[in-house]
Amino acid sequence: MGRITLDKVRKAFGDTEVIPPLDLTIEDGEFVVFVGPSGCGKSTLLRLIAGLEDVSGGEIRIDGKPATDLPPAKRGLAMVFQSYALYPHMTVRKNITFPLKMAGMSEEEKKRRVDHAAEVLNLTDYLDRRPGQLSGGQRQRVAIGRAIVREPAAFLFDEPLSNLDAALRVGMRLEISELHERLKTTMVYVTHDQVEAMTMADKIVVLRAGNIEQVGSPLDLYRTPRNLFVAGFIGSPTMNLIDGAEAAKHDARTIGIRPEHIDVVGDGPWQGKVGVSEHLGSDTFFHVHETGLADIITVRAPGEVNHRAGDTIRLSPQMDKLHRFGQDGLRIA
Amino acid sequence: MATQHSRAAARFMIAPSVVLLLAWMLIPLGMTLYFSFLRYNLLMPGNNPFVGFENYAYFVTDPAFQAAIVNTLLLVGGILLITVVGGIALAVLLDQPMWGTGIVRIMVISPFFVMPTVSALVWKNMFMNPVNGLFAYIAEVLGMQPFDFLTQAPLASIIGIVSWQWLPFATLILLTAMQSLDSEQLEASEMDGASAWSRFYYIKLPHLARAITVVVLIQTIFLLSIFAEILVTTNGGPGTASTNLTYLVYAESLLRFDVGTGSAGGVIAIILANIVAIFLMRMIGKNLDA
């Protein structure tokens, strides 16, 4: 079981309030991702759940039991740190065994659990090495192994992939998702990378300056961003946001349209000059200037479409995919 | 990469300092070696005949020699033990966040700035003196017989004085090492359920291993040649109770004016120091590679 409830949880460092009172429920077995720009308080929130920081107010409940005043080890949570935080002077086996040793488990039980974790994570051949002799991805797996053996109620991940190179990151992303499929344990994952959030999460929590901007499934957030911040944050490349006269036509302060919802057609209502084009093979992204709408409009076109810099093209937004935002930045239904 | 040319130029340019340093070391060493093979006593002027290993034989068979070796080892070992254990304890304490950390740290480090002769005099006259000393006063207040430290326990007293001087050094090195410990490791161990003691024993202490090695190596080098503290407090006495190898060499050459035997003692001291150094490097040098 691993149901985590935050009830009006608040955190202040001195006079600066980094997290204003906040309510959130993480259901058992869910993969929840906290995402937001750096400094939005997502790591602090995770550390509050872990018990590494004391809350300034409010209550944290794990499986219905109050955990606000419990020390980290008593909460039944396991954490994977950004720097992995492996113990450099211990072998991989000793690293993974450490939490079990602290819990005073019997030798057979320790061995059984460590061997099982090593098997799950493909670490069996490395058990006698030290962290210094492992690659980044292997260290990451050791850190996860150290979390798994405790059989925790929930896993907490603090930007675990940010120290890996791009290819490895995609691989580990998949491995963590598969691990979640297999273990069915609650996972709370912090990242600033919205691609990680979109690909892994059951539920995304978008944070800004300690406030929850929106909670929902990846597709909810993509389809119906609640406000301008979420609209700009979720999706890659980012949504085109257009102010002024064009927005007024739709009775909105700002309208948003994603690059993939604009078609390059001969008779579109918008017109502009192609600037940079990014060819990804499957898709091509055009940066279109001088549209009179915004500085740059990004457009996704199929990979084969080719326009040179300076060409004038016409664009047609898919009207049903248009997002409208009011004076206060909130979505207009 | 340096080219052949620039390497040659570099060698040419550092040559003067290398030659100077080498001469600085080799000339005194050579003269000591040379004197150690002569019968050379300032009280008996005249020709100084070559006597082979006679000086060495005299020095080694001197009953004070064995005492000096034992005392040297006791001094070094005792001080190392006190400063390393005390240094770790102080480093753990000073690592805690508390009010007035800056001032406390400066105060902890200050004994290191006091000259050895001065601190030895202060200890001898103001603390350990059986009549006027602070410890004697405390003993009297408590109704006990004052203890004459430097007569009744001369070696232990000197160990105490020198430990007081070197404790700040050990504390400083160990404290900086402690502060370089990744805080995420401590948090991870906290999540893993480690108690304060387990965190110290399993995480902090192994992290300090390298710094402890450095402290032991550096201190051993300096402690093998303790001299000022002995000269000021006990003059090596009573008898030879607090004579170490350095002090014995001094006594031979400058109290008995026997330059030849003194030099022989100096050469033996060099050899012993090197043996200790080799053993130390063997034993704990591994720690530095890791």
TrEMBL record, chain A:
Domain ABC transporter: 4-234
GO cellular component: ATP-binding cassette (ABC) transporter complex, substrate-binding subunit-containing; maltose transport complex
Record keywords, A-Z: ATP-binding, Hydrolase, Nucleotide-binding, Transport
Entry's Gene Ontology molecular function annotations: ABC-type maltose transporter activity; ATP binding; ATP hydrolysis activity
Domain of life (superkingdom): Bacteria
Protein name according to UniProt: Maltose/maltodextrin import ATP-binding protein MalK
PROSITE patterns given in the database record: ABC_TRANSPORTER_1 (PS00211), ABC_TRANSPORTER_2 (PS50893)
Assigned EC number: 3.6.3.19
Family the entry assigns: Belongs to the ABC transporter superfamily.
Main EC class the enzyme belongs to: hydrolase
The keyword Manganese is assigned to this record: no
Source organism of this protein record: Palleronia marisminoris
TrEMBL record, chain B:
Entries under Pfam families matching the protein: BPD_transp_1
Top-level division of the source organism's lineage: Bacteria
Residue ranges of domain ABC transmembrane type-1 in the record: 69-280
Localization in the cell: Cell membrane
Topology term for the membrane: Multi-pass membrane protein
Transmembrane regions: 12-37, 68-94, 106-123, 153-175, 208-228, 264-284
Gene Ontology CC annotations of this record: plasma membrane
Record keywords: Cell membrane, Membrane, Transmembrane, Transmembrane helix, Transport
GO biological process: transmembrane transport
Similarity comment text for this entry: Belongs to the binding-protein-dependent transport system permease family.
Entry protein name: Trehalose transport system permease protein SugA
Organism: Palleronia marisminoris
